[in-house]
Amino acid sequence: MSGTAPQASTTAGLALRELVIDIPGRPDGDPLDLAVAPGEVWGVLGPNGAGKTTLLHTLAGLRPPRSGAVRLAGRGLGQWRRKALARRLGVVFQERHDGFPATVLETALIGRHPYLAPWDLETAEDLAIARGALARLGLDGLEERLVSTLSGGERQRLSVATVLAQDPAVWLADEPTNHLDLRHQTAVMGLLAERAAAGCAVFLCLHDINLAARWCDHILLLYPDGSACWGPTGAMLVTEALERLYGQRLVAGQVDGTRVFVPALR
Ligand SMILES: Nc1ncnc2c1ncn2[C@@H]1O[C@H](COP(=O)(O)OP(=O)(O)OP(=O)(O)O)[C@@H](O)[C@H]1O
After folding, report:
1. Residues lining ligand 1, CB < 6 A?
2. How far apart are CA 212 and CA 175, in angstroms?
3. What per-residue string of b and e applies to 38-66 under the rule 16 or more CB within 10 Å gives b?
4. Confidence (pTM)
5. Residue of the nearest CA to atom 25 in ligand 1?
6. Which of 4, 9, 164, 252 has the most CB atoms within 10 Å of its CB?
7. ipTM beyond 0.85?
8. Are the beta carbons of 88 and 73 closer than 8 angstroms?
9. What is the residue with the minimal CA distance to atom 3 of ligand 1?
10. Residue 247 neighbours by CB distance under 10 Å
């Protein structure tokens, strides 16, 4: 993979203040009170249905919380104009549904829309940024292909490339390694860590404890009953807590300076 990543456009983080997400029919969980600071990579772990996607959509302003607030650079999400918000906050969604036929390059260029006036065409610079983002995700050569013809992993990388072209200060990513082979999982996690090192705040939902252990500096554990705990990765990725989280016995070890967890057979 090659290409030049854009500069982070700003360095403001995200704050969750006494945030209770709204999961229909479920009692209030623990209020979330934490800050995702520039330079940090947060991983959210939890079993199916725990509320990870609901949380991510709440942080993106796509659904209201039951109570509490989400602040971006000190202002509530509702106080931001849509375009200004779109320049600061990017979302890699879990699934994308094709609205209308579009090529790979046209899709990556959507990431530049927050920077265009209503009737403006993309500039040569926008094109270069979109092409650079595609190259970074190993999609150069596929620019004229229809998105509907891409494999699952190629589509996933296109979603990440589109947000890379958007160049937000805050990245929200819902299982960004979905459908990816091991090399591309590594490349995408490396890219997110690189964005954080460039001053972005990164918040992602993951199912892979070992990817979280390797690349996240902070972890939020979301339990199905709404309880939650969070903190630095070393303190959160503890066998007993993870066994309770997933209802699965684990065996832990240390490899290459990182904790690794594998399911116990008995
Ligand atoms: N509109 C809705 N009406 C009723 N229940 C809903 C609605 N949207 C989500 N839920 C429920 O809320 C819970 C949390 O869903 P969410 O998608 O946030 O979980 P998740 O942790 O991301 O799960 P997964 O790991 O399977 O992706 C689930 O039990 C889901 O069925």
Report:
1. 23-24, 46, 48-54
2. 11
3. bbbbbbbbbeeebbbbbbbbbbbbeeebe
4. 0.92
5. 48
6. 164
7. yes
8. yes
9. 24
10. 8
